[in-house]
Amino acid sequence: MPSANAIPFFPTAGALALRLAPLAPLSFAAARLARSLGRRHPALFKRLGDQTGKTFLLDPTDLPFAFLLSPRPEAPGLKAVRRSSAGSWDARIAGSLAALIGLVHGAYDGDALFFSRDLVIEGDTEAVLALRNAIDNEEIDLARETAALFGPFESVALRPAHGLAALAARWTGVAFKRPERGTWE
What confidence score (pLDDT) does residue 1 get? Predict the structure, then answer.
């Protein structure tokens, strides 16, 4: 596993460019991804139990926007929002994009990130712990989940999705796919 001291930050030039980007296309893609995750990983919501009614603000601090996650089994939602208009939430999880995605992929230990202050938790900590445990159990690969959005063409889309994930990782330092077992240093 990479050490917590080596967590990269999204490039400043890229973050500045994203300030001008409209959030509607990103929200559309994020919502589709959330619904697909719900179909492909129903155990994710079962593990959340009573916490499925909560709203989580996922706040990549090196990007000019955040995401509101509503992990409701019947209609999971993920929406890109400007921080100033995020509205109310039950729990906030903040850290660099690499740290947040690294948690999803199992590249970083959440406890180590929290105690090193690379990850900030606010609000309902019980909900955050339930979300973390549910995600850990599912071993989600965001590149594979993105390819799944292509339905019957998932197998065709998987190779380009992994290629784009590798290219994005080289540019940003963010691992957009789960590594094969045993490849973390």
Answer: 45
Q: Give me the pLDDT at residue 149, please.
A: 92
- Phi, psi (rounded to 5 degrees) for 179: -70, 160
Average of pLDDT values for 126-138? Answer: 90
Instruction: For the beta carbon of residue 54, count every other beta carbon within 10 angstroms.
Output: 21
Residue type, 73: P
- Cα gap 95→50, rounded to integer Å: 25
**Token pair belonging to 13:** 């030039």
Residue 120 corresponds to which tokens in the numbers above? 């900030």
* CB neighbourhood size of 129 (10 A): 14
The predicted model scores a pTM of: 0.85
Query: Where do the domains of the chain lie?
Result: 4-140
Average pLDDT over residues 129-151: 89
CA pair distance 140, 142, nearest whole angstrom: 6
Backbone angles phi, psi at 156, to 5 degrees: -75, -35
Domain 4-140 matching CATH 3.30.1050.10: the answer reads yes
- pLDDT, tens digit, for every residue of 26-74? 999 999 999 999 999 998 888 898 999 999 999 999 999 999 999 998 8
Distances (CA, A) of 152 to 32, 156, 157: 15, 9, 10
The Cα–Cα gap between 103 and 110 comes to 6
